[in-house]
Predict the structure.
Amino acid sequence: MSFALHSALSSAAGLGVHASIPSPPISSFQVGPFTIHYYALCIIAGIIVATFMTNNRLTKRGAERWVVVDICIIAVPLAIIAARIFHVLTHPGFYFGPGANTWNPFQPGSVWAIWEGGIAIFGALIGGGIGAWLGCRWTGVRFSTFADALAPGLILAQAFGRFGNYFNHELFGLPTNLPWGLEIESTNAAFPAGLAPGTLFHPTFLYEVIWNTLGCLFLLWLGRRLRLQWGKLFAVYLIWYGAGRAVWESIRIDPSEIYFGLRTNVWAALAAVVLGIVILFVQTRRHTGFESSAYQPGRQPKKADVESQDDQSEYVDLSAPEAGGADSEAAATSTAAAG
């Protein structure tokens, strides 16, 4: 999942030298009769990393070890399905119309050909959010606690996923002369007509990898610094990711539906920012104290397999309200269902 910078002679400028990012020569490999796509491996790696991080954060908060797996059993499939549906619905020209292989699962370009790329994080957030809510209802974990525990791992998983776009040679940005321009072969179906072979493009996958990785570090720091709970850390995730995605999306040149002059995913990114601000504002006003437990009222396991909470500033003993806050433990418990 790494890329190499290299130097090449610029044929148009004599002996000029430029640096650029080459696209990977392959996007898949064979294992017996099976084709393994790097895109899928990147997605799977992100899911694994997010699961381990979320499990670690939840157990430090007081939840049973690996309860996250019970939640992910529901959330991950719904996230993938909704992500694909969102992509198909926002790119109808790819899958519907004369000559399209819309419903043929064995042909490229069908709605089932997820290995070619084409899953939307905003669809994943919707489907995964519904699945996580159902999983939390099933396990008794407080939904806001799970969301806050998930936030850093989720944005890091998205960084892993962007490497899948790199291997697929897709979703690049406008042409650029910057030294970190991305090389895309002129035979690529997404290569813009009229541009000269060798044109470099903004590596939007790399921009988002960097932005998301910084976001993960920021969320981890902020969670420890301010002890954000009640879904507030997840709200910050929505604001951070949405703000960055709106910028990167605006310089991408892959086809997209346009509404009022903006790409569909720009609108979705702005909606994420607004939703994050609303959640942060509402939850800050509603909950001035800490969550009393990682579990919903009455759902605390009798024998929880819990990690030591020593030296975990983000996961201090929350049985008492925040110093100077208006919520008592009883008040926090009475409002827990709304969290």
Notes: The mean pLDDT is 81.
